[in-house]
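1st attempt posting a full record on here, be nice pls
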Amino acid sequence: MDGGRAISPRRRPRLGRALPRLRGVQDQPRQVDQPLTRTAARIHALPALDKAAANGLPTLADKGYIGAGIGILVPVRRPKGRSEQALHSDTRTTNNLISGVRALGERAAAELKQRWRTLQHITLSPSRIGDIARAALVLNRIWK
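the predicted structure (as tokens):
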């Protein structure tokens, strides 16, 4: 119930919108710690990344995906109650590199979503959206 009225089925958020869309063009996961989202990611998104991992192409993720599986590179969390300086300098450097590369991908996805607003409303399977995203990337390159 929302304000005394039931939420219509058309207005309920679809679970598919909370999942990463593509490896190269993806949304930042929303509320990754929610059990439904994590379960949906394990069922639908993460198995698709196994092939890439087998070919030596890791997937970069944020700290919400710690323990997600093989081929998912996440930053290392600092020890609880301690500063970031408690991590070894190599670990901090790796964390910065992962975050920096992820930031480039997130910036590209955000730019595409702002310029091509129709990408915000696509509910296709991640395996079927690739052609649309690639076309938008080409058009975005021409636009600049």
